[in-house]
Amino acid sequence: MNSDFNDKRRGTLVRSFAFAIEGIIHSLKYERNIKIHLAVALAVIILGFLYRVSSFEWLVIILVIGGMLSFELMNTAVERVVDLVTSEHHPLAKQAKDIAAGAVFIYAAISVVAGCIIFLPKML
Ligand SMILES: Nc1ncnc2c1ncn2[C@@H]1O[C@H](COP(=O)(O)OP(=O)(O)OP(=O)(O)O)[C@@H](O)[C@H]1O
């Protein structure tokens, strides 16, 4: 009985992961911005190896890349929900999309600053 319950829970957990991966794959297929973020992330990782960044710097790079991709996915989710709710031009729809885009923009700006702090001294 207990193992039945555990199997069920494990099933739903695996399904949740599968749905999450489905969402990531969908965004990768249809969202230009996430492809750009991924390309930049790849370039930063290559630079990290080239400049032999420290463990702490890798930690910052990983957090920044993960955060950036997560923000972009949340932004896409907000866009989808807004488009689902209305196809009409509505000030609240604009606010929701623009605020979500603002969140991405802030994190992107912080990522650039973090990248400069890590890489500029090594490059100059
Ligand atoms: N239903 C709507 N009502 C009012 N404004 C909207 C609506 N849909 C989009 N907008 C606004 O129109 C502009 C362009 O939105 P759009 O949905 O094309 O996304 P975007 O900003 O080009 O982002 P992305 O390139 O990531 O898709 C944004 O300012 C957005 O807030």
UniProtKB/TrEMBL annotation:
The keyword Glycoprotein does not apply. The chain crosses the membrane at residues 34-52, 58-78, 99-120. It is an enzyme of class 2 (transferase). InterPro entries: DAGK, DAGK_sf, UDPK. One of its GO terms (molecular function) is kinase activity. It is a multi-pass membrane protein. Keywords: ATP-binding, Cell membrane, Kinase, Lipid biosynthesis, Lipid metabolism, Membrane, Nucleotide-binding, Phospholipid biosynthesis, Phospholipid metabolism, Transferase, Transmembrane, Transmembrane helix. Its EC number is 2.7.1.-. It is found in: Cell membrane. Its main location: membrane. Belongs to the bacterial diacylglycerol kinase family. This is Diacylglycerol kinase family protein. It comes from Niallia oryzisoli.
